[in-house]
Specification:
The protein is 44% helix and 11% strand. It is an alpha+beta fold. α2 links the parallel β1 and β2. Keywords: Signal. InterPro entries: Bact_solute-bd_prot1, SBP. This is Extracellular solute-binding protein.
Length: 435
Amino acid sequence: MLTARRRTARRLTTLTAAALCGALLLSACGGSDSGSGDAKTLRLWHYEGPDSAMGVAWNAAIKEFEAQHPGVQVKFEEKGFEQIQKTAPMVLNSSDAPDLMEYNKGNATAGQLSKQGLLTDLGAEVTARGWDKKLSAAVATTSRYDANGVMGSGKWYGVPDYAEYTMVFYNKDLFAKYGIARPKTFDELTAAMDAFVKKGVTPLANAGAEYVAQQYLYQLALSKADRSWVDSYQLYQGKTDFHDPAWTYAADTFADWVRKGYISKKSTGSKAEDAGVSWIQGKAPILFSGSWWYGRFQSEAKFDWDSGLWPGSELTLGSGGNLWVVPKNAKNKELAYDFIDITLSKKIQNLLGDKGGVPVAADASAVTDPRAKALIENFNALSARDGLAFYPDWPVNGFYDVLVSETQKLMTGAEKPDGYLSALQKAYDKGVPQR
């Protein structure tokens, strides 16, 4: 998705990975395109919080990198999600481009930068360093983009070192308090939500002003869809009809859930952070969201909880994680390649997994935390059945904002399901690239 689904699930970091270059050293930083001997600084941008699994793992990777490259320092520059999202095309087209940066995957983000010629083709490094052997086909989908910026084929413009997917988080203490059984099937899920409503508890944490609400709806559609449906919608390999059975079921069911009180109309203006915090504070028994919350829930939730895949669906939202991309104008590309290589090493991958991330190349037996093991096992199950269905806003530019505003209207009753789906169809058809 615009992957703005994660924009408030993280806290920005002010981590200083190494002492900043002094004035004299900065004048010497840079080096040749191949990262020759005069390169003394690797400029790195990312927006992971320091307590997230990625933040912890990448901080360790910085230390490992500096140990392997005596005399070279990593200059980590704090950049917010929105800052990178809005300014990347301008910055990457200048001489101020970093050597390596985290960027959002998908047609509307990394695909657009690749189409504009702002990213380095990593194909030779991917093959030489064996990165392609570490990434499953589903995870690698978002790494490659064709000449039109459409993911799934073409050149390698990015490499993820983690994956992500959505799941249902359950507050087991609240279930126990109200004498409600933890659901295992979709029917049991709806029965549990009915039971909570009767107890005066709104069962689902939600955020209408950001990604959470649209992801509930997309998951409902996915529960009635298959891989060809996903490929038509996401990769333009067929006609997408928003009035088909899957989308119609999703819109009708979501609107019905609001009417039944499973989802509060008051959450129409809430943001993702609000939804996550309400769950952390024990105000909602259920949250459907992504693995990007896992590390934070591990450290902040003071109750017994667990998670599981959406019941009754072979597909769920997910993909490879955000990408390491090397700007076309990067001055120290070889150093950037070396850093990517370190993040894909067993040492860093195992650390990422143990901290609640979803590593792409970890030794599962080396992950000791029980919840982290379950997180990785569920991802492996999804990956094995080709169950990652990406995110609803990915297919066309600007679709995220359309999904937010239209889903808000559906929540308030200002738009009926049929009109909601027609609005999505219009925006989607307008944005689908001509191929």
